Amino acid sequence: MTMTPSSLDALLTLLERERQQRDQALLGLRDAQNQAEHASLQARTLSAYRAEYAERWTGRFRAPGSIELMQCYQGFMQRLDLAIGQQRDIVAQAEQRLREAQEALREREQRLGSVEKLIERRQLEQHRHAARREQSLTDELALRLHERKRLAQRDPGTDTLT
């Protein structure tokens, strides 16, 4: 199959579109990575704050204190634990979006590679076809020259191409 300039243009247009979609998928992946890292950092920060807060207050509870202060501490720790749990859910969601973005990028890169391979095969096919055509013309020319020589040997007065 010979590739016409319009079919090559169509493939090159498809190639450009696939590159743009791959680039968009790459941006999506980077965004998902940033969100996952940010969510993870937030979760670590909350957990570190909880540990520091608990350690700080542990010493105060060794001394006699009020019930109200203890209840206040426990209420705050419960809210902090709830926030940490919610942040862990956010981390899990961000990691899922990251996996989806990685898969989307992989698919886009695969499609781009397929289009590049198709163009490469079509161009190779076009070169082979041109080489066969050139070989055929060369063979035909050689045959004509041989025929001319043969005729010239038979009839020395004839030196025209047929």
Strand content: under 5%
Number of helices: 2
The dominant shape is rod-shaped
- CATH architecture term: Orthogonal Bundle
From N to C, what is the helix and strand string? HH
CATH classification class: Mainly Alpha
Biggest pleated sheet: none
Distance between the termini: 32 Å
Radius of gyration over C-alpha positions, nearest whole angstrom: 38 Å
Secondary structure: number of strands: 0
> If you average the pLDDT, what whole number results?
90
Q: What class do helices, strands and sheet pairing give?
A: mainly alpha
Helix % is over 70%
Number of domains: 1
Uncertain residue ranges = none
CATH fold-level assignment: Helix Hairpins
Commentary on this structure:
There is one protein chain. This protein is mainly α and 162 residues long. It has a single domain, classed as Orthogonal Bundle (Helix Hairpins), CATH 1.10.287. Helices cover 89% and strands 0% of the residues. The chain is built from 2 helices and no strands. The protein has helices at 5-60, 67-154. Helix 1 (5-60) runs antiparallel to helix 2 (67-154). It is rod-shaped, with a radius of gyration of 38 Å. The mean pLDDT is 90.
